[in-house]
Amino acid sequence: MDLQGRVAVVGVGVSNMALIRYLVSKGVSVTACDRHPAERLGDRAGELSRLGVRLVTGEAYLAPLAEHDLIFLTPGMPKHLPEIEAARRRGAVIAGEIGLVLDLCRAPVIGVTGSAGKTTTTTLIGEIMRVSGRQTYVGGNIGTVLIEKVEAIPPEAIVVLELSSFQLQLVQRSPHISVITNISPNHLDVHATMEEYVAAKKAIFRHQSPRDWLVLNADDPLVRSFAAEARSRVVLFSRRADPGGRDAAFIRDGQMVWRRDGQELPTLLLEEIKLPGLHNQENILAAMAACYLAGAPLSAVREVMTQFTGVEHRIEPVRVLDGVKWYNDSKATSPAEAVAALSTLPAPIVLIAGGSDKGIPFDPIAPLVAEKVKYLILTGPTAPKIEEAVRRGGYAGPVRRAADMAEAVALARAAAAPGDTVLLSPACASFDAYRNFEERGRHFKSLVEALQ
C-alpha cells in the first residue's frame, strides 16, 4: 500500500486506533470517521485531537471518503455502502488494518479462519509454537493488535492470526500457512449473500503461492472442494477417516496421526485429550497440521494438547451449584457454534439462547434442542425466530422469554434440577445488549457466581 498523502480511517475502535497511531508515526495525514458523536467516543476523541487527526462524526461521517484515495475500514462494517462503492469506482484503495499487517510482516504467518472453531484453533497453534521455543505473536481477531509491533517482529518469529470474513474481504496477501476449519452460514446481516461470505473466506488462500500451505477440513464438503482452486500445497484433516494424500492429519484406531511425505507419526491418543467435544477433535487436527508444517516438534504438540482445556466463553465451566452444572458458551454467536456445545454437553439441558440477528436460519439447532433441551429460555430480537425454528424441528418443551440476562439466569435457576446442565449458548451475536460476546459472557458468569 502507498501510505503517502492523506488517508481516511473509518471506525475508531481498538484496532483502528492502533492503526491511526501507526499512520501518524509515519507522517501520514489521517482523517478519522465514525458514526458515533464525538462525546460517545470518550478518551479516543481526545487522543485523536492530540495526534492532530481530523475527526468527522455523525450522519455524514462517510462524506470525507470522496477526498481520499486510501481508505481503511473497520472490519465489521458493510462494504457495499454507497460512499464506499463510489470511492471504489473512482479508484480508491479500500483496505483494512490486518491487510497492512500482512504487507509489512517479515515473519511467516499462520492464518486461521472458519465459521466455528477458529479461536480455539488459533489459540492452540499459538501455544504450541511458544512451547516449541519460537518467538510467537497471536493477533487478528483475538490477541494483540499487531500493527504497531509488526515492523519489530523478526523474520525468525512466527505470527498466528485469527481472521474473520470481514478482515479477509480487505486483504491482498495470504498467510504462508492458511487453515480453514469449516464453513456454514454466518454474518449474513453484513455480507450481501452467502456467496460473498464464502468468497471472503477464500481470500485466506487466494493469494498464496506454490510454496505455501493450505490446511482444509476434509469432513466439510464445501471446504474440501477448495483444494481444486488452490495454487498452494494442500493438507487435509479429518476426524472420520484417512483423507488420503502424502500429507494429512487424521484419526485412526483412537489415535491422532500426522502424515508428512508419506511417513506417519502417531501423535496423540484421544483419551489423552482434555478438550471435550468432537468439534474440538477437528480443531486439534487442524492445529496439529499447521504446527508440524511450521516446524514444531512432537514434544511441543503433545505438551499443549494433553493440557489444554479450552478458551474463555467457549463451553467454559462456570460452577456447580446444587448439583447443576453451569456453562458459559457466549462465543457461540452462530447456530453452528451452538450445535457444537449442545452436541458436547449431556442432557437434560436448560438452554439460554438469543440475541441480535445475523440474518441466518436457526434450523440447525432444532434437532439437538428437541433431543437434549428440557427448558428453553430466549432473549433478544431473535427469540421469535428461534422458537419458531425449534418448534418446527420437534421441540415440545417449555419456552420462556427473558427481558435480560439477569432474568434468564433466574429462570434457569428455577427450572434446573440436580443432574441438569444450564448452558448459555446464544447462537446469535450480542449487539442487542452488549458490546461483544466477551462482555455478555462475563456478565453471565458474574450472575451465576452470585447465586446463593
What descriptive keywords fit this protein?
452 residues, alpha/beta, nine-stranded mixed beta sheet, six-stranded mixed beta sheet, 15 helices
Number of strands: 20
The largest pleated sheet is described as: 9 strands, mixed
Given as residue ranges, the uncertain stretches (5+ residues, pLDDT < 50) are none
Give helix % range: 25-40%
Strand order of the largest sheet: 7-8-6-9-10-11-12-13-14
What structural class should be given to the helix and strand makeup? alpha/beta
How much of the sequence is in beta strands? 15-25%
So what's the overall shape? globular
- Determine the mean pLDDT: 95
CA distance, first residue to last residue: 57 Å
Radius of gyration over alpha carbons? Answer: 23 Å
Please, how many helices?
15
Description:
- Helices cover 33% and strands 22% of the residues.
- By secondary structure, the protein is of the alpha/beta class.
- Strands 7-8-6-9-10-11-12-13-14 form a nine-stranded mixed sheet, with helices on both faces.
- Helix 12 links the parallel strand 17 and strand 18.
Summary of the model, kept short:
By secondary structure, the chain is of the alpha/beta class. It is built from 15 helices and 20 strands.
Layout of secondary structure:
Blueprint: E1 6-10, H1 14-25, E2 29-34, H2 43-51, E3 54-57, E4 70-73, H3 82-89, E5 93-95, H4 97-104, E6 109-113, H5 118-131, E7 136-140, E8 158-162, H6 165-168, E9 177-180, H7 194-206, E10 213-217, H8 221-225, E11 233-238, E12 248-252, E13 255-260, E14 263-269, H9 278-293, H10 298-305, E15 316-321, E16 324-328, H11 335-344, E17 349-353, H12 366-372, E18 373-378, H13 383-392, E19 399-401, H14 405-415, E20 421-424, H15 437-449
Helix pairs in contact: 5-9, 5-10, 12-13
